[in-house]
Amino acid sequence: MNIETKHITEREFLAKEHAANIKGTPIQEFYRDFNVFVTGATGFMGKVLIEKLLRSCPNVGRIFILIRTKKGQLPEDRKEELLKSVVSINLIFDVLRASSPEFHKKLVVVTGDCSLPKLGLSKSDYEILIQQVNIIFHLAATVRFDEKFNIAIPINIGGTKEIIDLCRACVKLKSIVYTSTAYSNCHLKDIKECFYDPPFDIDEDINKYLCTADEATIEILKPNHNCCLFAIANAAAWSLSRSTDLFSITYLCKNDRLAITLFKLQFTTLQGVQTEVPKCAFRH
């Protein structure tokens, strides 16, 4: 290494060290050295979130991404596919790649599946998340409108339950962000800006029934109830249908001192008064 190259290397090192010590915005400082766990990382929202975190919060810690094996493709291979993702006509990670070529080293793949107990994680991976994760983004969901009940419910409802259980166990957790699926009541001629109850009752046993029903029963149900599938398989809608008060899932977490951000603006009736549910609720 010649003297000029050595000086350049030293300058680059000092520049990076200086940048790391510069106080950033409140959001950047919040994420500084914090480790993040993301489900649904290979989906559209997941890709945008990861790119935004890495680009706007360069001092964020590691980002653990839950990826399952899909169609014979291993999680690590799906991670590489994610990094080549295209949004509009541009590769989403191109700007980040130009400014921080080694950004991918912050991405840590954990193999799992939201439809399985404990997210299908190995004991060692589960323990790592418990000990190291500070922030959780739960984005994973099936968004197929013709999905079978016994597939949609374990993912969209069961997965959310497993995430909450993980949150309870995390020793350094600061916040959990749950992004719900969305459903448009397209079977109605006129759709108002209000919450529509499911067209049939959801009692305490429906989850068990739908998850264990035989294929023949599921096929019989499909023509009649597919139109409201996402009202059922959406964890937020499930909570609303099971509670006379504000989001029961929120109260469940509130008692555990979990900080939640609800990316959902909903109109519902609270003790006879129409109330607009705030976008953000319950911080500890």
UniProtKB/TrEMBL annotation:
Domain of life: Eukaryota
UniProt domain Thioester reductase (TE): residue ranges: 38-200
Keywords: Lipid biosynthesis, Lipid metabolism, NADP, Oxidoreductase
GO terms (BP aspect): long-chain fatty-acyl-CoA metabolic process
Similarity field: Belongs to the fatty acyl-CoA reductase family.
Function statement: Catalyzes the reduction of fatty acyl-CoA to fatty alcohols.
Name used for this protein in its record: Fatty acyl-CoA reductase
